[in-house]
Amino acid sequence: MEFACCWTKKELAPEECPNIAEGEEELYSVYRRRVVEKCIDCPLFANDLLRFKESGHPLSEIFSIVVSEFLDQKSQLQSLGGFLTSKTREIKFLHELSLVLQTSVDLDEVLSVAMTAITAGKGFGMNRAFLLMTDKERQALCGYLGVGPRTMEEAWHIWEDVNRSNLTLRDMARLFQKNKLSSEKVKFNDILERLSVPLRDQQHVFNRALRERKPILVENAFSNPDIDPALAQLLGVDSFLIMPLISRHRRIGLILADNCITRKPITNQDLQSMETFAFPVAFALERASLYERLQVEIDKLTVANIKLKEQQELIVKMEKMALVGRITSSIAHSIRNPLMIIGGFARSLLKNMEQDDSKRDYLETIVHEAKQLEGVLEEVLSYSESLYPALDTWDINQLISGVRDELAGQLAQRGVTCVLELAPELPKVSIDYRKIAYCIKTIITSSLETITGEGEIVIRTWRDDGVVAVKISDNGTPLSPEMVETLTTPFMVTQNLGTGAGLPLCKTILEKHGSPFIIESSPEGGTQYIIRLPIKEGM
Amino acid sequence: MARLLVVDDESSIRLLYSQELADAGYDVVTAGNAAEAVAQLEGGEFDLVVLDIKLKNESGLDLLQKIVKERHEMPVILCTAFSCYKDDFSAWLADGYVVKSSDLQELKEEIRKVLAKKSR
User: Fold this and answer.
1) In a domain, A130, yes or no
2) Coil vs helix vs strand at A475
3) Whether residue A397 sits in one domain with residue A379
4) Total domains present in chain A
5) Is A348's Cβ below 8 Å from some Cβ in B?
6) CB contact under 8 A, B104 and A347
7) Global pTM?
8) d(CA A348, CA A358)
9) What is the tens place of the pLDDT at every residue in B56-107?
């Protein structure tokens, strides 16, 4: 029987078999491998096999079955191999990802890695992703970052760039963090703002994903009754993926991902891969944000420690100086009274003495010397008093918080809340702490008098043109112009302390500090008191 | 003739004040402590009080508050060896503040001014 193919030959000459490519030359002489790898798929061999079958040889039937079974097994093995390769790649990617996520405590780096992983071709290959973070204060999921192209044209640029480089995930994330993170934050601002959802909106699909702790693959978004049409409109896609980020029991946020450019369908396989990825991302995000907060606290503590040390040194110095001052002052005062008596009586005697009295000189000398000594005493005293001055530089915010705490009981008893809106990093003011604290306390208690039932007092501080301004406003009964007039009349001795004399006294104290004292009706109803304390130069 | 109450714990100073202020034409009564001062104020009419801040074991500023509370119209001049109380706002209740000196001219001037203001 004549066969068309070369499979009958143990050795082949080059170019005798069209299936052997460059680099496979050893197959010319390795017979067994050539048959299994090349001949079995060769159309000429298939022809020969057909002819063998037609020859009616008893083995031909069995031989055909064996060959066809072999071919089936080979193709199954090949597809399994492909699956294995893709899984190996995925595991390698996840390993690389988790390595980066586990070692990073930088929030921006974690964000960059996570977002790059979702959108990079060698990662999950989604076109676009949005990160929403839980904002505890606002009790909402808030749009935080968006990554991806906005237009087809931009998409081509990005993909071209990515294809040209052969970077690892970490390198890609680093490039992203360095070049793009801040611009991407701005790029999607319009969408991010509108993505925010209050946590109490239980029906919203975002909150459902968080509650069920499972990713949701949204399909037919435009006609899906579970999806707010505004959300579908905003994203402009029919299908997207919602991946909740939950670390232990804390809802960190969620990631939205879609294929807004290629419109490639999102498969269940994508969903599963992303689910594996969600936990390490959530955990890393939580850790990084905790670390960031910790760092802030550490910085604050360091500053506070330095301040404390400075204050301690100052206190020691002041104590020493004050001691010197006290001793000097005590000596000077005990001299002053007898000196005054000596000098005073000498003057008395002198007044009633005849002009030509021979003892007049003595008395004049006593008067003169006493006067001189009084001058020296005055100097010593003013020096010793300057050693512990009443005026010092203080942080007005600290003073206000202190007064509020002191009055906390009284405020709570009256059902009045006192809200502080204090501007951070205010310059220090040069004030007598005790007196200004007295003023703030008096204003708050006066405000309390005008509030019936539950009310609110707001204390706001801010820097304003060479001064630190303090505004205390209440929502009580507004004061009449006559009352304001009475309250700001200069301090008179006829008024009793503790019965309405407080505010005029405040006015006097504040004027001595170079501050006006403005009492007026506040736009919100009630009364507002404004103080403007000059900033000490160089503070 | 205006009637003055001088409160000072030092007897020599009371003597000096009585003599000098009497020479200046005032009717002067003295008290050595707060209780005596209160008794004098309750027992008679006065036009002005000259008050020392450091009384033995007592504060002239407490007495000042008491006088201001009970006798709104009574002018008080603080006369003290300490100039630092000028900044103490409890001393601001007084109508005048004079630092003690062997030359009583300043005190006499202050008394004259406060009395003139009162009679206006």
Assistant:
1) yes
2) coil
3) no
4) 4
5) yes
6) yes
7) 0.46
8) 17
9) 888 898 899 889 888 888 999 999 887 777 667 777 788 999 989 999 999 9
Q: For residues A388-403, give the mean pLDDT.
A: 82
Residue A471: beta bridge partners? Answer: A460, A530
CB contact under 8 Å between B102 and A493, yes or no, is no
Q: How many Cβ atoms are within 10 Å of A186's Cβ, its own excluded?
A: 10
Residues A345 and A476 in one domain: no
Q: CA-CA distances (angstroms) from residue B19 to A138, A226, A343, A432, A445?
A: 78, 102, 14, 40, 48
User: Domain range for residue A75?
Assistant: 25-89
Which tokens hold the place of A222? 């435009």
A362 in the same domain as A399: no
| Residue A337 in contact with partner chain B when CB distance is under 8 A | yes
Residues A254-309 pLDDT 10s:
999 999 888 888 888 788 878 878 888 888 888 888 888 899 999 999 999 999 99
Strand pairing class (A392-394; A429-431): antiparallel
Out of A89, A111, A140, a domain closes at A89
Interface test with B, best of A331, A337, A382, A436 (most B CBs within 10 A): A337
Q: Is the pLDDT of residue A491 over 70?
A: no
Distance (Å) from the alpha carbon of A326 to chain B's nearest alpha carbon: 12
CB within 8 Å of A455: residues ≥ 6 apart = A414, A415, A416, A417, A474, A475, A476
| Nearby residues of A127 by Cβ (< 8 Å), 6 or more positions away | A119, A148, A149, A155, A258, A259, A260, A261, A262, A264
CATH number of B3-119: 3.40.50.2300
pLDDT at A498: 41
For residue A266 the two structure tokens come to 């999102």
Smallest Cβ distance to B102: which of A347, A381, A497?
A347
**Mean pLDDT, to the nearest integer, of A383-401?**
76
pLDDT of A202 strictly over 50: yes
Residue type, B14: R
State how far the alpha carbon of A14 is from the alpha carbons of A38, A42, A46, A101, in Å: 15, 17, 22, 54
Q: Check residue A141 and report its DSSP letter.
A: E
Tokens of A295: 């760092």
Beta carbons of A470 and A459 less than 8 angstroms apart: yes
- Residues A424, A511, single domain; the answer is yes
Alpha-carbon distance of B77 to B48, in angstroms, equals 8
Q: Tokens at residue A352, please? A: 């009633």
pLDDT at A539: 44
How far is B79 from B98, CA to CA, in rounded Å? Answer: 5
ipTM exceeding the 0.90 mark: no
